[in-house]
Write a structure and sequence with these properties.
Helices cover 30% and strands 38% of the residues. The longest helix has 23 residues. It is an alpha+beta fold. The strands form two sheets. The protein has an eight-stranded mixed beta sheet with strand order 6-7-8-9-10-11-12-13. The two termini are 19 Å apart. It is built from six helices and 13 strands.
């Protein structure tokens, strides 16, 4: 397990070295709906700040609509400052190092400076307006779950109860028939609610408790028992797709330094993966 973390850390450092060797350009882009994110690996002092642009341009060049990840190593104070300054679904101007190619094989950039919220790039603002237009009904009704609200991109969401606790349920709807298909998956899960609840939590413990006890123990923290691990898991939201697949997302406090636990599976294959995310 240590080798996995070491390889990933080394690969990330190679990316930062590639980015640092590139010239600095002025760049304008649309911040994705996820806003400013962050990650930190065990043993690291600095956070990796992460921003996705849904569309962007370098200088006065053409608008590019493939997503790009903007990253920077920052302190906790810098992270909070930039999170407060940069909102989701806004157009911002930055200075960044943008390579033609990189080890991750998808667009990446190194943030050098946040300049300002941009109100002058009419083309990017027009594109943002198009991104925000709902192409589907704003709400959909279900006799069991109630009212789902469209988020403007590809999800219908609703606040529901799972095992007696409030949770956000999101249905993926890329195609015209997807809502009904995803809804059937949700009904199947809720129809066997107690069994799925135990399976999912047991699977998370099985897959991630060894990782916690071997690599993520904080200073003066003793190894966790399966019951202690389960008690720290608070279900936050469930996502369901029309193909029968689903994701369970759990808040686990500082157990993994602020990361979430994601458990994946499908009605046909059962539970297939558990990982720390965010």
């Amino acid at each position: 397990m240590d080798d996995i973390f070491a390889d990933e850390t080394q690969r990330e450092q190679q990316l930062y070295d590639q980015l640092a060797a590139c010239p600095v350009f002025e760049m304008t882009g649309i911040v994705s709906a996820s806003g400013v994110g962050e990650s930190k690996s065990p043993g690291q002092q600095l956070w990796s700040l992460l921003i996705t642009f849904d569309a962007w341009r370098v200088g006065s060049g053409p608008v590019r609509t493939e997503s790009i990840t903007i990253r920077r190593k920052v302190s906790t104070h810098e992270l909070r400052t930039l999170k407060n300054a940069i909102g989701a679904k806004t157009v911002i101007k930055i200075r960044a190092r943008v390579p033609e190619e990189n080890i991750f094989r998808r667009p990446q950039a190194l943030l050098e400076e946040f300049i300002r919220i941009d109100s002058t790039d009419s083309e990017l603002h027009d594109y943002l307006t198009e991104l925000q237009k709902p192409e589907k009904p704003v709400t959909r009704e279900d006799d069991f779950f109630g009212t789902f609200i469209f988020d403007g991109s590809e999800w219908y969401a609703n606040s529901v109860k799972w095992n007696g606790e409030p949770v956000k349920l999101s249905l993926s709807v890329e195609g015209p028939k997807d809502f009904d298909l995803a809804l059937k998956v949700a009904h199947a899960l809720w129809g066997d609610e107690t069994l799925w609840n135990e399976r999912i939590r047991d699977y998370a413990v099985q897959e991630l408790l060894p990782l916690k006890n071997e690599n993520w123990l904080h200073e003066d923290e003793t190894e966790l028992s399966p019951e202690q691990f389960r008690n720290r898991m608070t279900l936050e939201f469930i996502t369901v797709c029309p193909d029968g697949s689903f994701e369970w997302w759990f808040d686990v406090g500082d157990m993994f330094l602020g990361h979430f636990i994601e458990v994946d599976g499908s009605l046909s294959e059962g539970l297939t993966a558990a990982a720390i995310q965010g």
